[in-house]
Amino acid sequence: MGFFDTIGRGWTLSKLSFSVVKADPELLLYTFLSALMVFATIGAASYPVYEADQTTENHWAFTNEKTDPQTGESIGGEMTDAYMAWIFVTYMIGSIIVVFWNTAIIASAHERLTGGDPTIMTGIRAAFSRIHIIILWGIIAGTVGLLLRIARDSVQKNSKGHPAMKMIAMIMLFLVEVAWWMYTFFIIPMIVLEKKGVREGLRDGRALFGKTWGENVTSGLGIGLITVIGIVISLGISLLIYMISPEAGIIVGVLLIGGLILWANTAEVVVVAALYEFAKTGKMPNLNGNGSRFEEALPWESKSGWANETAENKAWRDGTA
User: Fold this and answer.
1) Distance (Å, rounded) from C-alpha 271 to C-alpha 212?
2) Lower Cβ count inside 10 Å, N or C end of the chain?
3) Residue 146 lies in a domain
């Protein structure tokens, strides 16, 4: 029974996340701005490559081309230290941007789930109130993500390695990535809702994850399933319109699928706020805020930590209920 109850709660949280986005469409703007800014950082990181291709002179991003003495072929220049540093800086900026807007989404969603009515500035104000911790966490998360990406690329591009060893290395990297995901799942709610630093947030977030790991997995699968169904329906609608007007069908398809992906990506962040509320109280949150009243203050105001927690909630959280 417990297993199926967990699946049921995960599915309910999936649907709830989409409902929160529907109730507060400004969350879609947060996700859109996040994506726009991240694309800008990608463009900034990639522009030196384009610039170097357009000139025959020396470029600061790459060393001079060399000629292979054996084949006589021209070998492209390698990235300079300055360009690698530039890539690192833009990667960190992108990571901070993602953390900032995810923080805004979680703050607004949490207010909705606890009986509030957030405005477009609710999440932004909450995120700016914790900007120093957001920058720190963005750099940490970005650095770890970059190192994992470099490690994965190195394994995949290693043509001399034994296939079995490469497989083992990929499995080990996958396990490290899963462990990192579990360890950091609740870090943003800890930062913005409980006003904790990175160290305390990681410690307490890890403890909360153990309470809801089943719901975490099933809610993610639920959001994915809803998204896939939505894409299939969108493709069907687009195809019908395409049969009448190809141009209109393509435009409608792009808008529908793009909007659905934006909605789904926002829901994936919102579900963290819902899972946080469930993990803290043991009660399922809802749009009316009836699931919990654990935090009465606005997200950017001082928090009382566990001071408002009932003895029943504490026993549930400690696993002694």
Assistant:
1) 12
2) N
3) yes
